[in-house]
Amino acid sequence: MNPDVVLRLADLVVEFPTHGGRTVHAVSGVSLEVRRGETLGLVGESGCGKSSTGRAIMQMPRPTSGSVFFGGRDLTMLSAAELRAVRPKLQMIFQDPISSLNPRRRIPDIVGDPLRVWGRGAERARVVPEVLEAVGLDPAQVADRRPHEFSGGQCQRVSIARALVLEPEALICDEPVSALDVSVQAQILNLLEEMKRRYGLTLVFIAHDLGVVRNISDRVAVMYLGRICEIGDSPALFDRPVHPYTRLLVSSIPSIEADGGHTEVGSGEVPSPVNPPSGCRFRTRCPLATQRCAQEVPQMREVIPGRFAACHHPVVEER
User: Fold this and answer.
1) Which among 84, 115, 222, 249 is least surrounded, fewest beta carbons within 10 Å?
2) pLDDT tens column, 171-215
3) Where are the beta strands (DSSP E) in the chain?
4) Any residues with CB less than 8 A from the CB of 317 and at least 6 apart, and which?
5) What's the structural domain count of the chain?
């Protein structure tokens, strides 16, 4: 494994049984690499499998098949005890900051619990105030308070502090600002950037808001109906998308000046993950689709330098 790659997903599959003996194909053969110190944005419409991918990285639950390599070890092959030993270095921030915190616990206890669990309780008096201050909370003011006494943004700061207290190497951020007001979103995004620099973190940032992903990410992976369709550097990917689905997403970003250079893409209905289309899963909404798109699953390939897309008919404009 490349030493510059902290996290690698190989042919990751996540499926859930549903009524009538049918199966939800949440994640289908996702392969990704996350480089040390970068922020990889994972973006797509609601229900495309972003959060399922994030939880599969954490083994919550374990994926149906495929591999998740972290620190040179395949997490899917570890025993429960071995996986537990890895978790301090791989943490997660959840979408709803309030429901992810125990309402009966005081803030210092919530943040310090990971230290207690790992036999480092003696460090709590020193480490917890340091981490609370790092995320912009006054340790004295939160000492006897509980989550319901704080706003969503403040609770998300507590969640970030809890995730950082064990000094992880990588942080999975699952829609960490989608439940917050726009003004608070900016504060949390700035905080994540600051924590990334201070603690040397590697981030996987999951979101459906393309504006947020564009601003915080070094690279972006675009996901549609359980599969990755395009990967590239940000903002280059947004300035020159090559996959028809990415172009649809980018064209939906509000702007003062309309970009007439983009190919029109039909909106249509997103197919069900219970019965996804054959071949390219975007073909039912794509005006460029051909018979080949229905018969053959497109493989990820480098379309332009540094840009990878899984598409039989990528749109490559001359510059």
Assistant:
1) 84
2) 999 999 888 888 899 999 999 999 999 999 999 999 988 888 998
3) 5-17, 23-35, 39-43, 65-70, 73-74, 90-93, 170-174, 202-207, 219-224, 227-233, 301-304, 307-309
4) 240, 261
5) 1
